[in-house]
Specification:
two-stranded antiparallel sheet, 30% helix, alpha+beta, 4 domains
Length: 273
């Protein structure tokens, strides 16, 4: 109930009577015209609704006779739908199951609006014929029929990460478990890339050659700047392997050792000749 006289725009509230109890109250003319705010309280509003059966039975917007009959496209069952549902949602099915079945039978394969005729391809390894969509061929696919054939094609010197067989070269004899434990101790067995600990990783960190030189410890006269190592978890170490990324990680970890660790990367440098 309005008790203060205040202005809403240029209109002053006027006195009127509550439609339920008849008590005097105040409301704006525009609200009275729209039958709004014509009750002194929400409680009286709900009582008036229930006593006059407004929005119940035939007066309810959900009254079943307000619906129209619709024949299901799939099974032919007659169901009731509101006009608004038919107009905006296209509710022409009795259930979601019928709708899904109808779409699978009538809107799949060649009938689908997404359908694109596939192009026949020939595998470069085994010669088997297969089909691929045009957009996948544009992206460079469609050369191999399976991952197995692709693996054969990308093996050895044909692999984009091929580095003259450096992975087959032996490590320096000084590159042993005691030295790797030395490096892990220096970095407290924490991944310098993501900060993961040994407990979180559930295994020791991998000791990574920053300069990718396997013989950096044993070559006589080798510059000390090549003897750079960091500890990485298995996931982060995998990111440093591809050739295009090596220069980036080499520069990044060299700078890290120089600025954060004063050029040292293992606990006892005097033991390494």
């Amino acid at each position: 109930m309005l008790t203060q006289q205040y202005i809403c725009g240029n209109t002053m509230p006027i006195k009127c009577m509550c439609r339920y109890c008849g008590d005097e109250m105040e409301s704006y003319p525009s609200e009275i015209k729209r039958n709004k705010n014509t009750f002194c309280s929400q409680d009286h509003y709900h009582k008036w609704i229930s006593e006059n059966k407004i929005r119940s039975g035939q007066n309810s917007i959900f009254w079943k006779n307000a619906k129209v009959e619709v024949v299901c496209k799939q099974c032919g069952t007659i169901t009731l739908r509101y006009k608004s549902q038919i107009k905006w949602r296209g509710s022409s099915f009795c259930s979601r199951a019928c709708r899904a079945l109808w779409h699978s039978l009538n809107k799949s394969g060649n009938n689908s609006w997404k359908w694109v005729n596939k192009i026949k391809c020939k595998c470069l390894i085994c010669g088997k014929e297969f089909e691929r969509q045009p957009n996948t061929i544009k992206k460079g696919y469609g050369k191999y029929c399976s991952h197995k054939c692709k693996g054969i094609a990308k093996k050895g010197i044909n692999n984009p990460n091929w580095n003259n067989g450096s992975s087959f070269l032996p490590y320096c004899p000084l590159w042993n478990n005691p030295f790797r434990d030395n490096v892990r101790e220096f970095y407290r067995n924490i991944c310098v890339e993501c900060g993961r600990t040994k407990e979180e990783n559930k295994e020791n960190m991998i000791v990574h050659h920053v300069t990718y030189n396997k013989g950096a410890l044993c070559k006589e006269g080798e510059e000390v700047k090549d003897r750079l190592f960091v500890t990485l978890c298995r996931s982060c170490h995998g990111k440093t392997i591809p050739l295009p990324r090596r220069d980036y990680y080499k520069e990044k970890y060299t700078k890290l050792i120089k600025e954060n660790y004063n050029g040292h990367c293992y606990a006892l440098p005097e033991k390494v000749s």
